[in-house]
Amino acid sequence: MTTLKSNMSKDEIYVWVVNILHEMFELDKTKITLQSNLYTELDIDSIDAVDIVVKLNQLTNKRIQPDVFRAVRTVQDVVDVLANLLAEETK
Known about the structure:
Elements: H1 10-25, H2 46-60, H3 66-70, H4 75-89
Helix pairs in contact: 1-4
């Protein structure tokens, strides 16, 4: 799995997130949209959410704050969190 790059667009981050979710949970990529709710539509539970954060921390070499990820509900939210992390990196 490739790491996130600071110059990635939100579209590229979305594709990256879909690949992560597919790899970790064997989810059908065609069923994952920006509006997909992680918990109600993709059947991600709280343990899975922790696993996602750990994986994202490893792949970004950043630490996603737990309170930030607690607010995440949709794939779009994940993309936005990652985009903000990358934006901070370029400052």
